[in-house]
Amino acid sequence: MTKRNIYINAPLTRRVLSYFIDWYLGALCAAFPIAVVSQKLYGTMLKQNLLKIQQPYGFIAGIIGVIFALFYYIYIPFFVYKGQTVGKRICKVKIIQNNNQEVSLKSLVLRQALGMIVIEGIFVSASALWHQLVSLCIHVNIVSMMMYVGFVVGGISTLMIIFTKEHRAIHDYIGNTKVVSV
Q1: pLDDT number for residue 121
Q2: Residue 76 neighbours by CB distance under 10 Å
Q3: The pairing of beta strand 177-181 with beta strand 93-97
Q4: Are 7 and 180 in contact (CB under 8 A)?
């Protein structure tokens, strides 16, 4: 007979606090390469809009920014703090599989990259980079439109966390995960 861990869903307050910590730290990671390129090109780190940075430098900085964000949101919770970003570790919550097993790399990629960055698209700053990169590729500015879509999808996801029995967001369903107390 195998031993199964019993977990309790993370309290909303700790989940929200961990989100704000992760939002800030993830934004720093994503913005760092863009700030470096901006500083080199314009003498200031304040030019952060990829659409207004000389190309191909803006595109390259955006790709590196997304990679840095993925490092924070996927590499750290898989290889450094199993199931935890820095914010989740501070708040004593973690991401696990919905079946109470440790989170897999596939689930983290689905949850964090596809669910949070691409589909929900408003809760992490890497989403803005994603929208700007797509705009650069298709030569149509979709940033504002995607921001509004992200607000709607993100709002629905937030309501799911608050009002559903399982307290799982859209990104949790995509990654087959849940957030629990540790």
Answers
A1: 79
A2: 21
A3: antiparallel
A4: yes
Residue found under tokens 């991401």: 95
User: Helical H runs in 6-56?
Assistant: 12-42
- Listed in sequence order, the DSSP H helices in the chain are 12-42, 57-70, 86-90, 105-108, 125-138, 143-163, 170-175
Question: What pLDDT, in 10s, does the model give residues 144-168?
Answer: 999 999 999 999 999 999 999 999 9
**Rounded Cα distance, 106 and 93, in Å:** 20
For 75-108, the pLDDT digits (tens) are 999 999 999 999 999 999 999 999 999 999 999 9
With cut-offs at 50, 70 and 90, classify the pLDDT of residue 182: very high
> What is the C-alpha to C-alpha distance for residues 65 and 33, in angstroms, rounded to an integer?
6
What is the token pair recorded at 29? 């990671």
Neighbours of 59 (CB within 10 A): 16
CA 3 → CA 89, 124, 178, distances in Å? 24, 36, 19
Q: Are 116 and 50 in contact (CB under 8 A)?
A: no
Query: Who's near 114: CB < 8 A, 6+ residues apart?
Result: 171, 174, 175
Position 123 confidence tier, pLDDT thresholds 50, 70, 90: confident
- Does position 1 have pLDDT exceeding 90, yes or no? no
